[in-house]
Amino acid sequence: MSFKSAVITFPGSNCDRDALVYLKTLTSGEVLNIWHEENSLPNVDLVIVPGGFSFGDYLRSGAMASKSKIINDLINHSKKGGYILGICNGFQILSEIGLLKGALIQNNRLKFLGKNCFIKKKYQSDFNCLINKDQVLKIPVAHNEGNFYCDDSDLKYLHDNELIAFEYCEGKFSNSIANINGSIDNIAGITNKDKNILGMMPHPERAFQNFHSSQDGKLILESLLS
Amino acid sequence: MNEDLIKQHGLTIDEFKIIHKYLKRDLSIEELGIFSAMWNEHCCYKTSKKWLKKLPTENNIVIQGPGENAGIIDLKDNDGIAFKIESHNHPSYIEPFNGSATGVGGILRDIFTMGARPIATLDSIRFGDITTDKTKYLLNGVVHGIGHYGNCIGIPNIGGECEFDSSYDYNNLVNAMAIGHVKNDRIFYSKPKTIGGLIVYIGSKTGKDGIHGASMASDVFSEDDEDEKRPSVQVGDPFMEKLLMEGCLELMSSGLIESMQDMGAAGITSSSVEMASKGEVGVLINLDKIPLREPLSPYEILLSESQERMLAVIEPENNEKVKSILKRWQIDYEVIGEITDTKRVVFSSNNKNVVDLPVNIIVDDAPEYDREFYIPKKRKINDFELSNLNIENMVENLFQNLNYLEKSWVFNQYDSTVMGDTINEPGQSSGIVKLHDSDKVIGATTDCNPLYIRINPEKGMEYTVLESYRNLVCSNLKPLAITNNLNFASPLDPNIMGEIVLSINGLRKSASQLDTPIVSGNVSLYNQTNDRPIKPTPVIGMVGFNDNYENIISNKFQNESDLIILIGNSMSKNNSPYFLQDQHIVKKVTQFNELIDINYDLEKKNIKILYNVFDHNLVTSCNDISRGGVFLTLIKMLQNNYGFNINIKDKFDIFCEYQAGYILTINKNDYGSIKNIFEKNQIEYQNIGEVSKESIEINSKKFDYFKILNDYLNNFEKIIN
After folding, report:
1. What is the pLDDT of residue B291?
2. Alpha-carbon distance B678 to B659, whole Å?
3. What is the mean pLDDT of chain A?
4. Cα distance between residue A55 and residue A181, in whole Å
5. Which of 3.60.70.12, 3.40.50.300, 3.30.565.10, 3.40.50.880 is the CATH number of A5-225?
6. pLDDT tens digits, residue range A144-157?
7. Any bridge partners for residue A103, and if so which?
8. Which of B144, B417, B642 best probes binding to A when mutated, by most A CB atoms within 10 angstroms?
9. Residues of chain B falling short of pLDDT 50
C-alpha cells in the first residue's frame, strides 16, 4: 500500500523543504506540498507541520499559523484518524490549535538552542514503535521556545494516558545535560489521546541521511510506516 | 553652499569643489545627500582602491570577480557558488542586536540578488576585554542578532571565529559572510538592458531608519557618539527577508527579471546609481511612488537604509505576472520609474526634479586617494627566557585565555543544521555543507591573525591566508577562492595606512601563490574611537570544494589506538607570537621577533601529500595546527571520550605555532603504507603517540581528562556569565 503524505508551508516556514526531502527519501508514495491558504488537504496518510518561524513568530510562536485557512481541514484530518507530525514550530502550531496539550515557552536559559540533543522513548505509539526502551536517539534541536509547559492536571493526563512520546536524556559524551530547555518532566514530544498526532521539538528530518551527524531520525517515520 | 553643511555630509571642501566645477551650478540638498552617500569610504573605496586593484581576481573558475553584489566561482555541471563577506562594525557597536542582525540580512541579500539561494553563513566577531559589562552586553547582543536573523530566515550558520582583545574595547568587529548556490545559466546582474524597462521596488516600506548609515560607517567615533548615532542603525525583519528571498528567487527562476540590485548601504541612491552606471544608461525615478512607512521628505527617501528592499528592472509586459507572484508572498511592489538613455540619474517628486545628475560624475569621478604610509621598522632579535614554563603551567595558561576555549555558547545560539545539508557544524576547522540534490560539498572558513599582522602586516596576512587554506585542506577540501573584509583604523594615520597597504600586498602574494583569487570583499576603515585604533584585522573568508561528501575527512578522533602523526615545522619558541603572548612571556607588540619567512614550498609539499594519503584512505582524522599548537589541535580533536597519549622531545614544540602543520590519525596497520609514502616524498613526520580513551598524557605526565575537557568545553560560559 502506498503511503501518501503532505507538508504544509506557511510564510516563514523554513524546514518545509527538509520535511519534503525526509518524506521523499523514506516513503515510496506521493509527497505533496500544501500552501497555507488552501482550503482543503488532499487525502493523505500523514501531514507534517514543519519547523520555521511561521509569520515571523512575532506573536506567540505558532499563534498566527494556527488561524490559517488550511487548519480547519487539518483538524478534520486528525478527526478521521489521519497522522500529523508537528516538528518544532509545527509542534508549537499544533499546541496553539489545541490539538496537543500544553504550551512551548521560552527556553529556561533564555537563548536560542541549536545543537544535537538526546532523547528516548517514554510511552509507545505508532510514531516510536520501532524504538527500543532505553535506546538513546541523537537528533538536532533548533529552537528558542521549546520549553514544554503544562499545568498539573494536564501533566497527570499526559502520564495517565501515556501520551509522552519522547523525553530528553543524557548522551554518551561526558558533557551533556539531559534537560536542555527546562521542559517539565524532560518532555521532548507528546501525542494526543488517540495517538495519531505527534508534536516534538527535535528535528528528525535533519537526522536521516548518511552525511548527517546521526541517522536516528529515520526511526520516527519508519515506525509510522511499519 | 555653506561649508558646515558640506562637512556634515562627510565631504571635504576639495571634494565639493570637484563637483561644483563639473556641474557649474549649486547642488540641491538631495544632490548633496547623494554625493555624501556615494563618495564615502564605504561606497567608493577612495582610500583602498589604488591598492585593491593589485589583487588577483581571476582564474579559470572565476565567473564573477569583485564589483558585483557577490563573487561567483564555477563548480562545473552548471553549479556555481556566490559568496561575500561584509562588515557591520559601527552599527553593531551602537546597537548590537539590530546592527549585527542587519549585517546578516544585508549579506544574504547580496547573495540572492544574483539568483543564488543562500546555503550557509559564517561570522567573524571581535570584542574587547571580556571582564567589562560593556563587552558582555555587546557580545550578547551581537550573537543574539546574528542568530536571530539567520535562524528565522532559515540559513545554517556553519562556522566563524570569535576573538577577544582589548584593542576592540570601543570598536567591536562584526563581519558576516554568506554563500549561495546558483545555476550558472541563471545568474542575475545589476546591469539593466532595456531602455524603457520598468524600475520596480520590491520589499519593505521605506522609513527613517539608517539615514546616513553609510557615511556614519566611514567615520571615527567619539565615546559620547553612541546615543546620538543610534537612529542611524537599521532595524531588521528576517521574516520579511524570508518572503523577499522566496519571492525574488521565484521571479528569477520564472525568467521575469532583467536585472536586480539590493538596496543596501545608501539605499535607493546607491542601488539606482549602480544600475545606471553598470548598464551605461539613465534612470528616472518618481520618489512619490516609493512605498513609505511614514511621511518622508525626498532627501530622507534617498538616504534611507530601511532593510529588506530590492530594486529590479523588468520588461513592461511582465508587470502583471511579477505583481501576482509578489502578492502571494505578501510583498510590497511598486513601479517607480524607468530606464532611460540619458546616462543621467533623475529623481522627481511633486512633478519637480530634485536630483538631476550625470552618472559619470557620481561614479567615475569619485575621489581616489593615494595616502601617505609608513613601513614598520626592522625588529631586533630576542632570545626569550622561558625557564619558568613547564607542561602543566603552559596548559593552564592556555585555558585561561578565552580565545582558545570552545565557543559553543556562541554557536549553539545559531541554527547550523537547517536546510538539512550540513556536514561540518561550527566548532570545527571549517564549516561544510552539501549542495542540495548533488554530492558536491562546499567548505568555508573565516580567519584573521591580528597579532601577526600587527607584527608584520605583509607576512602576517600571508599567514592568515595560509591558515584558512590549511583549515580547508585538513578536511580534504580544495581551497578555491577568497572574499575579504579589511577592517582597519584611520587611514589618515600613515602607520595605519602602512598596515593597509602591506597587508593587501601580503594578500596579493599569498593568493597568487596558492591560486585562490579574491572574488569579492569589503573595506571597513576608521575603526577607532578617539586615539584608540583596533589591531589591523583584515579578515578573509575562504571557500573550498570536494566533489563528493564521502571524501570529507573528520577533524575529530575516530578510533582508540589510532596513531597520531605530526607533520610540519615548529616556528620555535622564540618565533611563535601567540605562544609567547599566551605564556605571558611577551607583553608588548614591539618586543616580538620578526615573523619568520613563509615557506610556500613546504606548505605546498605537505598539502600535496595530504591529498595523496586522503585519496589512499589512510587517514582516519586530520586537523591543522594553529594558535595553541599541537596541544590545542589535539584538544579540538576530542570527541566521544577519546583522549591522547603523546611525546614530543622539545616541550615548547607542543605549544608553538607551526608552518604547514597538521595532525593526522591513522590506523596502526596503515603505518607502513604512510611511512612509505612520506619517505618516498621526503616528508618529515613524527609519530607522536596514539589516541586513548578518557586519558590525556603528555611526555609521560598524566592529566585529569575530565577536568581538561570540562575546562575546555565550559570555561567560556563561566567566564562570560
Report:
1. 96
2. 17
3. 96
4. 23
5. 3.40.50.880
6. 999 999 999 999 99
7. A149
8. B417
9. none
Determine whether the interchain pair B420/A112 forms a contact, defined as Cβ–Cβ distance below 8 Å.
no
Q: Which domains does chain B have, with CATH numbers?
A: 1-39+188-366 (3.90.650.10), 399-405+553-721 (3.90.650.10)
Report chain B residues whose CB lies below 8 A from the CB of A115: 408, 412
Q: How much is the pLDDT for B228?
A: 56
Check whether A34 has a pLDDT greater than 80.
yes
d(C-alpha B566, C-alpha B624), whole Å: 10
Say what percent of chain A tops pLDDT 90.
Answer: 95
Q: Tell which phi-psi region holds residue B156, choosing left (phi > 0), alpha (psi between -120 and 50) or beta.
A: beta
Query: Three cell numbers at B501?
Result: 597597504
CA distance A75 to A67: 12
CA gap B510, A44 in Å, rounded: 58
| DSSP assignment string, B595-662 | PPPP-HHHHHHHHHHHHHHHHTT--SEEEE--TTHHHHHHHHT--TTEEEEE--SSGGGGTS-EEEEE
Query: Which residues make beta-bridge pairs with B334?
Result: B201
Pick the residue from chain A with its C-alpha nearest to B245. A12
Q: What is the pLDDT of residue B476?
A: 98
- Cell numbers linked to A118: 538526546
Reported ipTM: the value is 0.97
Q: What is the pLDDT of residues B628-653, one digit of tens each?
A: 999 999 999 999 899 999 999 999 99
Q: Which residues contact A60 (CB under 8 A, 6 or more apart)?
A: A92, A96
Minimal CA separation from A85 to chain B, in Å: 18
How does pLDDT run across A75-109, given as a tens digit for each residue?
999 999 999 999 999 999 999 999 999 999 999 99
Q: Testing the interface with B: which of A115, A213, A216 to mutate, by most B Cβ within 10 A?
A: A115
Residue for grid cell 589618515: B492
Residue B232: predicted pLDDT: 65
Q: With beta carbons under 8 A apart, name residues in chain B contacting A51.
A: 418
Residue B324 identity: S
**Residues from A in contact with B at Cβ < 8 Å:** 11-12, 14-15, 17-18, 21-22, 51-53, 55-58, 111-115, 140, 142, 144, 172-175, 203, 205-206, 209, 211-213
Quote the distance between the C-alpha of residue B424 and its chain's center.
18
Which of A52, A115, A206 comes nearest B420 by C-beta? A206
Rg, chain B, Cα only: 26
Q: What is the rounded distance in angstroms from the CA atom of residue B105 to the CA atom of residue B121?
A: 11
CB pair distance less than 8 Å for A175 and B710:
yes
Residue indicated by cell numbers 512551548:
A104
Minimal Cβ distance to A15: which of B418, B423, B714: B418
Among B239, B414, B710, select the one facing A56 at the smallest CB separation: B239
Q: What is the pTM of this model?
A: 0.96
Report the chain A residue with the minimal C-alpha distance to residue B642.
A173
**Taking the CA of residue B260 as centre, how many other CA atoms within 13 Å lie in the half-sphere pointing to its CB?**
27
- On whether the CB atoms of residues B480 and B543 are closer than 8 A, the answer is yes
Q: What is the pLDDT of residue B691?
A: 98
pLDDT at B234: 80
Handedness of CA B718, B719, B720, B721 (dihedral sign): positive
Q: Which of A48, A53, A118, A176 is most worth mutating to test chain B (most B CB atoms within 10 A of its CB)?
A: A53
The widest CA-to-CA distance across chain B, in whole angstroms, is: 84
- Contact (CB<8Å) B415/A55: no
The residues, any chain, with a CB within 8 Å of residue B499's CB and separated by 6 or more, are B453, B454, B457, B488, B536
Smallest Cβ–Cβ distance between B640 and the set A55, A57, A172 belongs to: A172
In angstroms, the separation between the Cα of residue B398 and the nearest Cα of chain A is 20
A36 is catalytic: no
Q: Can A205 be counted among the known catalytic residues?
A: yes
Q: Give the single-character DSSP code of B375.
A: P
Give domain limits for chain A. Answer: 5-225
